[in-house]
Amino acid sequence: AVIKSIIKLRGASVAILLRFVRLPLWVALVAALLNPVNLYAARFGPTQVLSHTGQPLKAKIEIFDVTADEQGWLALEAAPEHAYENASLRYSRVAQELQTSIQRVSKEKGKVVAWLTTSAPVTDEFVDLLLTLTWSTGRMTEAFTLLIPKHEKMVDGDNIAATIDTREFSD
Fold it and tell me: What pTM was computed for the model?
């Protein structure tokens, strides 16, 4: 019966059919907008590498849109080896030895910084990392390729001092 009525569509029948087709889309859109997980999901921001080849890794990744409640639940870790294989990424010694920490930058703006470090020197120019961020209402995994700058060789008589950003951030 439905097929016969669709075949005989004319004028007002088309408008009625379109109303029923749009109804599920409208309901889905409202449900998605009312779901707070979709509205306030954490996301990765810019990545900055602060070390050179031949030095232990020191990098930071900004994380945005983290609610005040979620900031206490944040955890960041390198994905397991099989996840690298599934993502067609090379599981390196850096990924295996990676240590992470989370630093709150702004409670009101939902911004935190994730610090990535290793104790062993990094010899590769490019490092693939597959990081999993977990918080109280969600989880996401994202791939990063870090460019580790080459360490400049010192010329005799040059005095090159490394600077490390040690500023404390407050709310």
Answer: 0.64
